[in-house]
Amino acid sequence: MFALAHLSDPHLSPMPRPRLVELMGKRAVGYFNWRARRGAHHSPDFLSTLVTDLKHRGFDHLAVTGDLVNLGLPDEYGLARRFLESLGPPGRVSMVPGNHDAYVRGTALLHLDVWKEYIAGDEPAQNANVSGAPFPYLRRRGDLAIIGLSTAIPTAPFLATGRLGRAQLLQLERLLKITKGEDRFRVVLIHHPPAGRHSPHEILTDAKAFRAAIAREGAELVLHGHKHKAMMQKIAGPGSPVNVIGVPSASNPGSNPERGGAYNIYRIGGKAGAWICEMESFGFAPGGAGIAKIRSAKLI
Fold this sequence. Notes:
Helix 5 links the parallel strand 5 (about 145-150) and strand 6 (about 185-190). The chain contains 6 helices and 12 strands. About 25% of the residues lie in helices and about 25% in strands. The chain has a 6-stranded mixed β-sheet. It is globular, with a radius of gyration of 18 Å. The chain is of the alpha/beta class.
């Protein structure tokens, strides 16, 4: 069985101290929110404990579905790079960016350079689409095809929306078709949830087009973050429905079992037409009793 781990939305802290000139527009709003409320929901100590537990449990590959930084401060991207390196080498860790990773226009593209080895496909030709960005990328690991997408775009204050765009969606369908022909278990990584009901200020604006692509070409598993809570949904595939799974923020110390920091491990086996996929979630147990298995499910 191939063990694919999944964590998301660490919102790394402590945050580098911003200069006054950096606290303008959206950053000013975000910084006030962090100091007044949001920062309390992200603990570096809890994140460290969770990552240590994940490493001890072991995995073959790790998917990270975005929001490593908070305000898009230049120094945050180096901090996030060191965090990625602590998780494992680029060949063993695949990540996609979230809306906070492209928080403001001035630094919206920094992750493409600083984290480039973690968002690169296996073949150089896959590492840039027609717009010059490296998404979607394709990585083959064992029987898996890991396809990484970016929904990260800079937005106005009070908005956390995402967008894929036509170029990514066309390439996504192409990669899904190719890897289906290779009889691979196709895992799509995306930050914003492509299914369910969400507030207009935080939606994936072309979620309908994404679901249409999956309905045409299929996938075996879609993993996302963004909502900071455990989520399990299904969307239509060409045959059977496709599981869409979200995890909470990895740094949230809350005791709510849906929102407390957690990671998932998907154990994948079988073969095309007869895949097996079982999920286990490990996180902070209510009452502060340490990290434990908090849910499990047979997905396929």
